[in-house]
Amino acid sequence: xxxVMGACVTMLPRCAKTYPARVxxxxxxxxxxxxxxxxxxxxDRPCILLRxxxxxxxxxxxxxxxxxxxxxxxxxENLLQCPCHQGGFSATDGRVLYGPPPKPLPNVVLERRxxxxxxxxxxxx
Length: 125
Ligand code: FES
Hints:
The chain has strands at residues 16-26, 35-39, 46-53, 56-61, 72-74, 79-82, 87-90, 96-98, 107-113, 116-123. By secondary structure, the protein is an all-beta fold. It has a single domain (6-123), classed as 3-layer Sandwich (Rieske Iron-sulfur Protein), CATH 2.102.10.10. The strands form two sheets. The protein has a six-stranded antiparallel β-sheet, with no helix packed on it. Bound molecules: FE2/S2 (inorganic) cluster. FE2/S2 (inorganic) cluster is lined by residues 64, 66-67, 69, 82, 84-85, 87, 99-101.
């Protein structure tokens, strides 16, 4: 795995599968505490990029590991919540916090190239 930005390096303990690199955002485009929705690695795979601190970017699949509903970011609680059956995931590392999801949310492996944030692959979840 190539370099990942900031604290994200220690947040990717699971095996990752590489996919073609794709620029998903530009540094500074997302305010601290904000997020951006994008797709990766295919256009039907929704993901979410979070910027919890000035130099920290972390991204996850938005597809809940229970029944594939799209999760929503709740910054004030630092979690990603699934509206379908009230599953909750940590917005720090994707682990299941509560509800029926059987596995963590897959991480998107990110690399910073200048001002570009580039998706490089996905963890196994
Ligand atoms: S689909 Fe997300 S908790 Fe069921």
